[in-house]
Input
Amino acid sequence: MADQLKSVATLLLVLNFCMYCVVLGIGAWAMNRAIDHGFIIGPDFYLPAHFSPIYFPMGNAATGFFVVFSLIAGVVGVASAMAGVNHVRSWHLDSMPAAVSAAIIAWSLTLLAMGFAWKEISLEIRNAKLNNGGVYDYPFGHSANVHINHSWQHVQETPLKHES
Output
């Protein structure tokens, strides 16, 4: 039974790691584009009336927040996947709290980014390339939830080795 749980945990870790890398790639592309094509501030430049400090030349008013929180969620998610790999590798009860707490933090940041993705979609003025970010954030929130629930079941059902 423990070997089956370990293989399921490994599969979910690989899936989450790959999805976080895709979110990071799309977010990094959008951030790079915003930096390259953003406002240029000069001596005779006047900011528009509705200027936002998180300005993105594509998308709508929610795009900047969506990209920033997707990048933060992606970085924390990759870190939580590394903590999860450490736990699966050692498979001790001592490594579980770090892996589960990192996964919960990454999941909550992913849900926050998913909320901004929903807001961006509801405002309807978007860049076609950014649709991929919203498409990945929605199922990703659910797969991360499955991983956290699986880890919690693992705590309740599986006897782990204790370091003595």
The chain has a mean pLDDT of 79. The two ends are 23 Å apart (CA to CA). The CA atoms of residues 83 and 99 lie 5 Å apart.
